[in-house]
């Protein structure tokens, strides 16, 4: 038994602003053994990132380390001379951040940058040797054809691949400690799950200790043996991760856990309901022309939405889920009629939108409204609140007095304080801003609300409040909702029927309980298995998680576009691209071998 | 749960944030000494130029051979009828300078306003609409930028009579493409912002979105930089006057006064020098204000303030 490689005792960091100082990291002590993975959980603003920076003394002016000791491999980092510090930072301690794209120089090949970094922290190493080492690590983080990608610039990498490059960058100097600050946050669930699996494999082979920081306990629970829970700069709970998840001792930890929505345990799925069709989408296509790189007049066709059909009924919540690049945003723009489809038809209340005149389209716009994702950019900054909510009514020719009256009613209905009426939106919270957006849609008395990741910028408490508001509005006004989201837990809680998109296409369309309990398409299963949960995942990762990344939408493979990653792929998948095929109970899956699903599950249970 | 809910509504430092970027720019600029000096000097000059010719009995174009070429010094007995002396035809230099400054300012400011209005509205429209509208307007600016301004001015003002509106038109014509370019580039970025999409979804027309929402965001920063252009246009006005293409004599302008007084530079230096000094001072004041505004704008854009 060796001693800890990192021992932090009574570390405090102050934030100085306008002559007052506030303690953002308060009397933190912990230790980290060699090769251990320690999790650090806390909600936004609890001081996690400041702590991570303080550990390597990378805090600057408004922040100041007030007290404490950080002993790394026997040396106190906080009292080292600068030269000795730079021999440790980036060399013995690696750092991976949440913004992989911003961490490298966009002009230089990634390989060159990592070699340079290595030769900077280890002046003794030769150019060729450094190169070999980087290539070796690029292969070990499973970047395909590392020899070629060594010479590519950062913009040629996807987010997940870039995060792997950052892992190489952190590991290249054989550090004994790596600080990973929120590294899965910008990634899609399946890619994040791949990265976690990768780190887990690496630390077993490299014997590197990790400090794994995240705002989500389920994410940390996938990898860390021990976990620290941080609240307002203090460590409030420390223990084995499984122990904390199962039997939290502190009220704060309990509250954190209670806010994690459960997916399978004790969930009553909203049951599908009948009603007249509000929105009908028939075989909608949309593609974009993108200039081919290095050519003057040649274009590539990107098929963003391919052959999508579904119906939303009155009073129904319809969910559309998928990862980035699956065509969700394009579909949103089509549904909101901000763009016209190339083929197919979108009908609202039985009227084909492309056949409407400009005037009746404007009239029709009153009845379907879109709520955008970004609560900050989606409001005009120089307009008082009430005027902003009157705006849609003024557009549609309602008189000023009437508009003011209805705006005030709407403000009351969404829970905005009347005192805010004359204020500008600066300084309002994200939740209040989304309430304004809801009020703006509400005054038009729409039939359908399209929610494009509307809640993803909000924290759990605000999300829950707004979901209650949505339910209340649905009960009083009879709205239908289309939830477009990557958040499976949200969709599980709210939606009656759900469509899963992959590469511009709906691969599965089913009611809530079928989709989460017996999904038929292998991609749906992969999505569910990648979801970080504290409960037992119904679809264990070793069996269902996918490798690799989706093919480029520019040159789609012939046949089924999922077959390159599909565990069920057979010869006929190369020839036929399956449309949505009917299953029992009005559900659909776009898979030729959809009836194999139950057998797969049995096989898992037998194992 | 309760303590967490409470924590989330914890007070945020909203006290100082309720100011629009435009207001902040003005505040930063107004706090700078160079801006204050420029503002005070410029206000004094403008006040003089507007008021003094109105109240003074001296006529700037009345010829009086009896008192020609008097130097700007007190005459015998410490009387000082001509503060800055008289010119070769006995006209009061101070009064001629002030009238010249009037024309200079009139032409400079109206030209910039014209350029700003034409350039920004075309640029805004091009950037906001995109597509072929954008292509056509931008090729127009390219064509306009490829014609040297002085050549254009000589051609137009040489053929037609050089009246004040004609001069304003010529100067404005040569200046608008720059404004169109800048306005377009900003509008292009603004076009895909959330609030524009939001307005579209609500059913607003393009014109409404442009005037009510995009213009207030795009235009103020450009307007600040336009202050520097007033100085540039005043110089161009004098150049045209010097070449004989500006406002015609007997109306005095900086350009034609200096052109006429060149011949007397050795024995009556003040006739040509005084308009030059007036121009120097007013341009310095304008540039001080303009550069202070630009620095304030950069500070706000960089997020320093």
From TrEMBL, chain A:
Primary localization: membrane
Domain annotation ABC transporter: ranges: 6-257, 279-528
Location(s), subcellular: Cell inner membrane
Transmembrane segments: none
GO molecular function, one term: ATP binding
Keyword ATP-binding on entry: yes
Recorded topology in the membrane: Peripheral membrane protein
CDD domains for the chain: ABC_NikE_OppD_transporters (cd03257)
Keywords: ATP-binding, Nucleotide-binding, Transport
InterPro entries (alphabetical): AAA+_ATPase, ABC_transp_ATP-bind, ABC_transporter-like_ATP-bd, ABC_transporter-like_CS, Oligopep_ABC_C, P-loop_NTPase
UniProt KW Transport keyword: yes
Family the UniProt entry places it in: Belongs to the ABC transporter superfamily.
Protein name (database record): Peptide/nickel transport system ATP-binding protein
Organism listed in the record: Shinella granuli
Organism lineage: Bacteria, Pseudomonadati, Pseudomonadota, Alphaproteobacteria, Hyphomicrobiales
TrEMBL record, chain B:
Keywords on record: Cell membrane, Membrane, Peptide transport, Protein transport, Transmembrane, Transmembrane helix, Transport
Xref: InterPro entries: BP-dependent_transpt_permease (IPR050366), MetI-like (IPR000515), MetI-like_sf (IPR035906)
Matching CDD domains: TM_PBP2
Domain ABC transmembrane type-1: 101-290
GO CC terms, sorted: plasma membrane
Localization: Cell membrane
Bilayer topology: Multi-pass membrane protein
Lineage top rank: taxon: Bacteria
GO terms (BP aspect): peptide transport; protein transport; transmembrane transport
Entry-linked Pfam families: BPD_transp_1 (PF00528)
Claim: Membrane is one of the keywords in the record: yes
The family this protein is said to belong to: Belongs to the binding-protein-dependent transport system permease family.
Name of the protein this chain belongs to: Peptide/nickel transport system permease protein
């Amino acid at each position: 038994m060796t001693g800890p490689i990192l021992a932090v005792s009574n570390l405090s960091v102050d934030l100085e602003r306008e002559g007052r100082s506030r303690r953002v990291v308060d009397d933190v002590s912990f230790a980290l053994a060699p090769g251990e993975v320690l999790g650090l959980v806390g909600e936004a603003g609890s001081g996690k990132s400041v702590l991570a920076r303080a550990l390597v003394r990378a805090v600057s002016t408004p922040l100041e380390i007030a007290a404490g000791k950080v002993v790394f491999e026997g040396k106190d980092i906080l009292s080292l001379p600068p030269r000795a510090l730079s021999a440790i930072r980036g060399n013995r301690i690696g750092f991976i951040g949440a913004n992989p794209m911003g961490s490298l120089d966009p002009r230089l090949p990634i390989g060159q940058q990592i070699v340079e970094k290595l030769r900077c922290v280890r002046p003794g190493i030769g150019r060729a040797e450094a190169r070999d080492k980087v290539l070796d690590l690029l292969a070990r983080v499973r970047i395909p054809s590392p020899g070629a990608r060594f010479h590519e610039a950062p913009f040629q990498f996807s987010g997940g691949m870039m995060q792997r490059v950052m892992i190489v960058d952190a590991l290249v100097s054989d550090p004994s400690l790596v600080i990973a600050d929120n590294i899965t946050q910008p990634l899609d669930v399946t890619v994040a799950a791949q990265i976690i699996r990768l780190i887990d494999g690496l630390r077993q082979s490299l014997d590197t200790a990790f400090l794994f920081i995240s705002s989500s306990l389920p994410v940390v629970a996938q990898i860390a043996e021990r976990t620290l829970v941080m609240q307002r700069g203090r460590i409030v709970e420390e223990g084995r991760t499984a122990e904390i998840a199962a039997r939290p001792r502190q009220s704060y930890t309990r509250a954190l856990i209670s806010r994690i929505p459960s997916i399978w345990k004790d969930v009553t799925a909203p049951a599908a309901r009948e009603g007249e069709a509000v929105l009908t989408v028939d075989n909608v296509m949309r593609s974009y022309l993108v200039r081919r790189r290095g050519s003057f007049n040649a274009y590539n066709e990107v098929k963003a939405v391919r052959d999508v059909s579904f119906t939303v009924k009155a009073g129904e919540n319809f969910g559309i889920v998928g990862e980035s690049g699956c065509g969700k945003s394009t579909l949103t723009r089509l549904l909101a009629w901000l763009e016209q489809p190339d083929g197919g038809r979108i009908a609202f209340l039985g009227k084909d939108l492309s056949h409407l005149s400009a005037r009746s389209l404007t009239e029709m716009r009153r009845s379907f409204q879109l709520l955008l994702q970004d609560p900050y950019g989606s409001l005009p900054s120089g307009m008082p609140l009430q005027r902003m909510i009157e705006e849609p009514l003024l557009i549609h020719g309602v008189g000023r007095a009437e508009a003011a009256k209805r705006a005030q009613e709407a403000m009351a209905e969404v829970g905005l304080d009347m005192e805010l009426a004359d204020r500008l939106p600066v300084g309002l919270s994200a939740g209040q801003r989304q309430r304004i957006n809801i009020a703006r849609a509400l005054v038009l008395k729409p039939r359908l609300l399209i929610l494009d990741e509307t809640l993803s910028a909000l924290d759990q408490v605000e999300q829950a409040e707004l979901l209650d508001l949505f339910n209340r509005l649905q009960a009083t006004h009879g709205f239908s909702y289309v939830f477009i989201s990557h958040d499976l837990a949200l969709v599980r809680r709210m939606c009656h029927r759900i469509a899963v998109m992959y590469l511009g296409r709906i691969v599965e369309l089913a009611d809530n309980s079928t989709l989460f309990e017996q999904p038929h398409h292998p991609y749906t299963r992969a999505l569910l298995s990648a979801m970080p949960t504290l409960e037992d995942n119904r679809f264990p990762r070793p069996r269902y998680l996918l490798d690799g990344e989706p093919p480029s939408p520019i040159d789609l493979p012939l046949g089924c576009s999922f077959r390159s990653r599909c565990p069920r792929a057979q010869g006929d998948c190369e020839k036929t691209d399956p449309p949505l095929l009917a299953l029992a109970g009005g559900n659909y899956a776009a898979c030729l071998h959809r009836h194999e699903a139950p057998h797969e599950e049995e096989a898992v249970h037998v194992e | 749960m309760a303590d967490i809910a409470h924590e989330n509504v914890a007070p945020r430092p909203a006290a100082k944030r309720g100011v629009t970027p435009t207001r902040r720019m003005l505040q930063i600029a107004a706090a700078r000494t160079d801006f204050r000096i420029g503002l005070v000097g410029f206000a004094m000059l403008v006040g003089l130029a507007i008021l003094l010719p109105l109240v003074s009995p001296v006529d700037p174009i009345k010829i009086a051979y009896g008192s020609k070429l008097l130097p700007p010094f007190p005459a015998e007995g410490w009387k000082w009828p001509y503060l800055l002396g008289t010119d070769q035809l006995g006209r009061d230099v101070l009064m001629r300078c002030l009238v010249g400054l009037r024309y200079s300012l009139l032409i400079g400011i109206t030209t910039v306003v014209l350029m700003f209005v034409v350039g920004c509205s075309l640029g805004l429209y091009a950037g906001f609409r995109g597509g072929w509208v954008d292509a056509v307007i931008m090729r127009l600016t390219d064509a306009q930028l490829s014609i040297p301004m002085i050549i254009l001015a000589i051609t137009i003002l040489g053929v037609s009579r050089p009246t004040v509106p004609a001069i304003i038109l010529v100067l404005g014509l040569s200046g608008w493409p720059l404004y169109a370019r800048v306005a377009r580039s900003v509008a292009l970025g603004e076009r895909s912002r959330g609030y524009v999409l939001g307005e579209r979804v609500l059913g607003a027309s393009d014109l409404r979105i442009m005037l009510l929402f995009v213009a207030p965001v795009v235009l103020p920063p450009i307007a600040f930089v336009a202050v520097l252009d007033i100085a540039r246009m005043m110089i161009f006005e004098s150049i045209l006057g010097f070449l004989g293409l500006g406002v015609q004599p007997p109306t005095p302008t900086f350009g034609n006064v200096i052109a006429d007084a060149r011949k007397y530079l050795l024995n009556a230096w003040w006739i040509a020098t005084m308009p030059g000094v007036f121009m120097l001072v007013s341009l310095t004041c304008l540039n001080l204000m303009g550069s202070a505004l630009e620095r304030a704008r950069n500070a706000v854009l960089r997020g320093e303030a």
